[in-house]
Specification:
Blueprint lengths: L1 E11 L1 E9 L6 E7 L12 H9 L3 E6 L16 H5 L3 H16 L9 E11 L1 H12 L3 E7 L14 H10 L1 E5 L6 E5 L1 H8 L6 H6 L5 E6 L7 H10 L4 E5 L18 H15 L1
């Protein structure tokens, strides 16, 4: 199996770095692209195991770090650039995903010989799933879409903040989010909210998922504390043709970071099995 890590895919002010996994043979591969969630990165929870499973199943699997997720090429699993994290927003992420798709479809990319660009599938987790829904509504190169624990609105992480906190955010220009794992105070500049206000129509997940005419699968844990399962039912209501798979698990399907085991937890195995079946369908 070919496993090429930390490829420079392109730049969106900062680099977009990705990994490619595929079996080396003479077959063109359908492409699966994965978009990570808020406070995440492409290698979170030893995502290489999942990438290998897709590659073994016959796909070319590409996972990448959003340009402003706070990591960098030298530290792809550490939040080493908090300034970049603070300058992240939804439209930047949509731009990153376009950079990735354009790279995939560019005949000059070194893996084009094994890529079937007529079959590009997109998976996103949490906020990354929201970005995936929005992007799929804009770009007809996406032929199938999977949302794992998808958000229903582009208001991460301020959606439930009280008015007083929102006012303080605007006045100070920055708020801080505590990363429970690293204990870092992650800056969130007010530009994140301003970007949402300016681009509300483009960032309307209800409108985006309702407009889709491609196969959609939604997987969600019934015990998800971060994005309640009711959001999945709402997304299904907005796109009745979507397949919905729920299981009793948390937001990350029982994974954690770091993940030192060579196997996946049972919940992630179930989600992976359902996802592969959907893509083969």
């Amino acid at each position: 199996m070919e496993k090429i890590k930390n490829i420079l895919i392109g730049h969106n002010q900062l680099p977009v770095i990705g990994d490619v996994f595929f079996e080396k043979d003479d077959q063109q591969k359908k492409i699966v692209i994965y978009a990570h969630g808020f406070n995440g990165f492409k290698d979170w929870g030893n995502f290489d195991i999942i990438a290998e499973r897709f590659a073994t199943a016959g796909f070319l699997f590409l996972k990448f770090n959003f340009s402003h997720n706070g990591t960098n090429a030298q530290n792809p699993e550490e939040f080493a650039n908090l300034e970049a994290f603070g300058q992240n927003n939804y439209t930047k992420q949509l731009g990153d995903l376009k950079i990735v798709l354009d790279w995939v479809c560019d005949k000059a990319n070194p893996f084009s010989y094994t890529m079937d660009t007529s079959n590009i599938y997109l998976i996103g987790h949490s906020m990354g799933a929201g970005i995936a829904i929005l992007f799929a509504s804009e770009d007809d190169r996406i032929k199938k879409l999977i949302g794992w624990a998808a958000i229903g609105e582009c208001k991460t992480p301020w959606g439930n903040w009280p008015e007083e906190k929102m006012d303080a955010w605007k006045k100070k220009g920055v708020e801080y989010y505590l990363n429970g794992r690293t204990k870092q105070l992650m800056p969130l500049y007010y530009q994140l909210y301003e970007d949402y206000e300016i681009h509300q129509s483009r960032l309307d997940i209800q409108k985006a998922i309702s407009s889709l005419n491609i196969p959609v699968l939604l997987c969600h844990g019934t015990a998800d504390p971060a994005v309640p399962v009711e959001v999945a039912f709402m997304l299904k209501k907005w796109q009745p043709s979507a397949q919905l798979f729920t299981l009793e698990t948390d937001h990350v399907f029982e994974r954690k970071h770091p993940w030192s085991e060579s196997y996946l937890p049972e919940a992630m195995e179930e989600v992976l099995s359902v996802s592969l079946k959907f893509l083969f369908g």
